[in-house]
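Chain and conformation:
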Amino acid sequence: MGLVAVLVGCAGNKAAEESSPSSDAVKPGAAASLEPLEGRLVAAGSLRKPVVIGAHAIVVPKGADATALREAIVKAAESRGYVLGAEPVAKGGRGAMIEIVAPPEVGVVPGLVEMRGRELSESDVQGILAATQAIGIGLAGPAAERDRILHDLAALAQTGGAGWIIDTDTREFFPRAEFAEARPPEFPVEMFHVVSFVVSEDDDGSTFVETLGMGRLGLPELMLDDIPMPADEAVALLTAAAQTLIERESMTADGRLTVDVGTLRVPPWPELAKALKADGGSGTATLIATWSAGHEEDPMIRLAADGDAKMLRETLASFAGGQRPPIDAPADDAELLAASKRARQRLAEIAKKCAKGLARGEQLAVKAPLETSDGTEYAWVAVEKCHAGRFEGELLNDPHGASKLRAGAKIEVPLADAYDYDYTRADGTTEGNETTKILQARQR
C-alpha cells in the first residue's frame, strides 16, 4: 500500500541518522543495503523505529458498494485524528491511506486464504475468492502512540457490517465475528493479539519458523531456523523471544537475547510462565542474534543457539520441558492404548495427504517403538516421506537403552506400529501428541 511503502522508507532513513553502530554489532539502518548486515551481530540498544505502521483490509462481498464503505472508513479515521496521506507522519502526526484495491493486492490468493484462514467456513472462502474489490487500510504514526494506532486500525477494519477482514501484517483472514473476538476493544498489545508465526521449509530442505507482525510494532521480525521436528517447541521459544523483544525493545547485550518467561509482565504471560515451569521447563534461554536480509524489504533478526543443531535441540528441550525424549509406556495401559488407537485412525487420514506431498510449512512426526536393551521405548521420527501406509524419516533422539540406532538415523515406521503423531500445519498450529500429554499430566 502506498502509505506503508512511503513510511517504511521514512522510518528507515530516520533510524539510519540516529544509529551509531560499533564495528561488530549493527543496529537497523546502519547500511544502505541489507547485504552488509548479513551475519552481523545485533547491537544492544533500542531497536524500535520512530514510526509504527499497520495495515488491514476488508474484502468487499461481490455486488456490495465499496465506495460507500470506503467513505465511511475515511470519515471514521478522520474522527480519530488521522489525516489522509504520508505528509502528516513526516511531521510527527498520524496519517492514513484508505484505498479501494483488487483483492490480490492485499493477499487474496487461492491456497493462502485456506491456509491462513481463522475459522473460515467453506462459504467464507468462496466469498473471499469471488470478491472483485477490497479496501486497504494503512495507519501510521509516532511509536509512542503504538497501542492507540493498533486499536484504531482494528476498529476501522470493523466498519460496516459485511465482508471479511484481513490482517495483512500477519496474513490472516477472518470472518467479522472471529476478528471481533481476536481484537476486542483495547486489546493488550502482546504476542497472541498482534503477531503470528509461519513454519516453512527452506530451499535446502531445512525448517524454520518466523514471526509476522513485529514490524507494525516498529520492531524487526524474528527467525529461528534449522529447527528440529516437530516444531512446537521452537514455536514456543520464538513466541517468548518475540514477547521479550516487545517488552524490552532491545537485545540483552550485543548479539545476545536472553529469554526468561518469568520476567514477562503483560498478561497472559505471568500465568503461562507458571504453566511452563509446572511442565518441567526452565522457561529460559540465551540466543545468539544476528542480522539477516530475510524475505522482505526490512532486515530480520536470526536467532540461534550458541552451538550446533544438537545444542539447539537441548536448548529447546530445556526451555519447554523436554517433550521429545524417548518415552517408556506400559504395554497394558488402557488410557494410553485408547489414545494410541485414536492417533492411528487420524494418522491414516494424514498419511493420504502426506503421500501426495506435504504443503510448504507442514510437518509430521510419528512416535515409533524401538527395541533396546531396556525393552521397548517410544521415540519420535521426523517424517520425510509417506507411501503405502509407511513413514520414512529421521530419528530425533538417542534411545535410553543400548541400541544400534542414534539420533539422525533413517528408519521406516509402518502405520500399524505408530504409537502417536504430531502434525504441524502450515500456519504453525498443531494436533496430536496425546500420549505425551497424558504421561505429563500424571507427573503433575
User: Anything to note?
Assistant: The radius of gyration is 23 Å.
